[in-house]
């Protein structure tokens, strides 16, 4: 069974022929043809989530985990606008999301009809492309045009690099009529291969061979074992240092994966010595504000950015050239052209890292119960082979101080760093994942997206840890807010909220801890329970956290 609206029936048919299977639909009337065409197609798995903002983040998490385009569909009006924050995250994190918004026919826009806004291209600033389907496809010409628009849109979701695509679809009434005959579309699947330029390979290899100090910095990336291998091999060169973050999903003995620890310890007069001459960057957002500040102040002579889509990401305001390439293939070919260069550059970074990481451990052994101590305890007790979702604000930033652990896949909405979709994203990611999925979120991030629990798809392998420090603790730490009279009320948004009854409302397991002993006791139990989705709320002393973290950065930079 499908809808009698041929445009959407054709889309559902071609969606399947592109090898796609998942769609998250929010209830409504104008999108009834989408519900009928997708929910009754045995080859499509259709999820229903009421809150469109949460539905879009759920789909984003699912697309991230399946590495396949996931669709979302909603009715007309403000429903569509609720997709915006997840769409912007998908855009900057390069995640394939197909956005289907049902709309009124053009003649019903701005004439006082209910639930009607100007939806065409409504997301144009943060989608790769916006399309609109014709309302009717009765002629051969209209049919062909609709089919080619659908194929273009589905291919655009992944080539040359993944991202969100919007299709706005007008439906006239009646909306609920089924049709027994399905439309048989033709899928045109692009077979896209990124060309690697040998000139660029030679250029970059000769630059590296020419200088004593090359830095490779890796932003957010999905797990990629081949990339991890070639970067580890590159980190063996004396003149190359490889900087990564937990969200880079890389692991290796010589990778500098605690960037903030190392850079925060640089005395002003030694920064010139640690700066690179040649900088190569790849991947998405860099979380460390410190390294951005360092490289913007101590600019390399040359900066090359590797990007499949050829985007000009001039993060350090000294970009020399963007190289369109598959980063892994490209670095492998560069590696084959490198000569050993005698240099102290890599060892100077390695030595510094060893020293500051030691200081970190000494400091952690003697501090009192606090966010920092709790994160240390959680990270030490994490089971192996898990998916770790890191909330924005302090959870993802604390993780950078500890470095990456082998066997853990790290996710975080670092595309635009919003705190508005963390629970929904983890829920969507964990749906098809066969691993334990653990989300570490701040309290405001949890309460903001507690609607992420408002669906019937929560897996028992999803565990949520809330670090409840009674507000936006980050604002007590960063310079600025505490110089104003508005810190606690308008920056931290101080509160006394607790998650217990939200968990009861959604029938989830709930545990809490209020001191170090309780945290240590409850964690082992928490990670072992596989029978239900659980929330562990850890209450920390809001007045101590910032002092302890500020003191930490003083300690790691003293007498180093
Ligand atoms: C959607 C959205 N609104 C506002 C912000 C600004 N912001 C950044 S961090 C933060 C506080 C987050 O508090 P919490 O989740 O408790 O984490 P904590 O700072 O305590 O670690 C806010 C409001 C944001 N990043 N995203
Ligand atoms: Mg907080």
Summarize the structure.
This protein is of the alpha/beta class and 560 residues long. The longest helix is centred in the middle third of the chain and has 22 residues, at 345-366. The protein is globular and about 75 Å long.
Description:
With 560 residues, this protein is of the alpha/beta class. The chain folds into 3 domains: 2-171, Rossmann fold, CATH 3.40.50; 198-351, Rossmann fold; 367-556, 3-Layer(aba) Sandwich (Rossmann fold), CATH 3.40.50.970. It is built from 22 helices and 19 strands. The strands form 4 sheets. The protein has a 6-stranded parallel sheet with strand order 3-2-4-5-7-6, sandwiched between helices. A 6-stranded parallel sheet has the order 15-14-16-17-19-18, with helices on both faces. Strands 10-9-11-12-13 form a 5-stranded parallel sheet. Helix 3 (52-66) runs parallel beside helix 5 (84-93), helix 3 crosses helix 16 (422-432) and helix 14 runs parallel beside helix 21 (516-528). The model has no long low-confidence stretch (mean pLDDT 96). The structure holds thiamine diphosphate (TPP) and magnesium ion (MG). Thiamine diphosphate (TPP) is lined by residues 391-394, 417-420, 442-445, 469, 472-474. Magnesium ion is lined by residues 442-444, 469, 471-473.
